[in-house]
Write a structure and sequence with these properties.
Structural class: mainly alpha
Distance between the termini: 57 Å
Radius of gyration: 21 Å
Shape: globular
Strand content: 5-15%
Strand order of the largest sheet: 3-1-4
Number of helices: 8
Order of helices and strands: HEEHEHHEEHHHH
């Protein structure tokens, strides 16, 4: 993988290995970690639309010297997975391009992973903080939409029993299948 990454390296372009393009694979990963990885990448692409970056969690990266010289490392405050998001967004802000090569990611067979709910929490809020820093109006809209989504779920959840039991086209079919 490293020779392929280095072969694509050029000034102004960060090259990274992606599991989610043609030729890339993930082996021996638990279903939970796989779901988190996919969801985190979808969320990051939605909130931080960086052209050319599909696997924002990937740590297989080659940074060209000219880009590293322009980076302000004091801006990168995160730990764990969030460092990948912050670094990528900072590179995007200073005008870097992104190139990807397929990799085969094999989950570890020994040692302990740092993956935890705290990592998920930190990564989620890191993406939100990066995107909405210095943008109070967009932050307010995002927060209101998020709150309304969860309030809607909270109010709608009790109705799922009603639909299953009383609705003719749903409840009747379910009762018929039960008998």
């Amino acid at each position: 993988t490293l020779p392929l990454l280095l072969s694509r390296a050029q000034p102004g372009t960060m090259v990274y290995g992606s599991r989610y393009i043609r030729g890339g694979k993930v082996l021996n990963m638990t279903w939970f970690r796989s779901v988190f990885s996919r969801a985190a990448n979808i969320f990051a692409r939605t909130i931080l639309p960086i052209a050319g970056l599909t696997d924002s969690i990937s740590g297989y990266r080659v940074y060209p010297r000219d880009i590293v010289a322009k980076m302000d490392f004091a801006k990168i405050k995160g730990r764990g997975f969030s460092v990948q998001f912050e670094t990528s967004y900072h590179l995007y802000e200073i005008g870097a391009k992104f190139a990807e090569v397929p990799i085969v990611f094999v989950n570890r067979d020994r040692g302990a992973s740092k993956f935890s709910f705290k990592e998920i929490y930190d990564a989620f809020f890191s993406i939100v903080k990066i995107r909405f820093a210095k943008k109070p109006l967009e932050t307010a809209v995002f927060v209101l939409l998020g709150v309304s989504f969860f309030v809607g779920l909270w109010h709608g959840w009790p109705l799922t029993a009603l639909v299953a039991d009383e609705a003719y086209h749903v409840g009747g079919v379910l009762r018929a299948m039960e008998h």
